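One-letter codes give the sequence; the integers encode the fold. A sample entry reads:
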Amino acid sequence: MASGTRGNPPANMEIWMGITDLLSSSNVLLDVSANTKRDLLEFMSNEAASRLGRPSQEILDALLAREQIGSTALGKGVALPHAELDGDGLPIVLLARLRRGIEFDSRDDEPVDIVFLVLWPSSGGKGLLTAMSEICRTLRDPQSLKRLRSAETPETIIDLVRQLATARDGGIPAPEDT
């Protein structure tokens, strides 16, 4: 089932949906311009709303509420804004690569230029945590981040993310483990 498709998710969504199931080239946004964290979250809320058929303000409010708890910046120029949305729709992952890094209240004070947005339906079980964990594992390696930053097309980014996720799933050591 493609992300962004409306319908009822299976009860065991957290088991069958990983990052490679949710991220498609149409959900990779390159050369995004944003001046502030709020600008970026508004942009990404609008993008997600058009794919999910939900109001962008609902998505933005959920993301801003999560940011009130603490910044979703992971460090090394990466952020992982996320939220659970009421209902039983499908989850979505968007990846935005910014033209220029922005302040995102990161602990390491590095500007953020790679952003994975994860939105998950509240009825989807623990799938949100599973998806976020998979993204974090995939992005641990500095070489992977370098490759994401230099990729020229959404398709190249998808191929890279699939390779990294497959390496993790198959027990093949990632570059930082060797």
Summary: The chain has one domain: 17-167. The two ends are 35 Å apart (CA to CA).
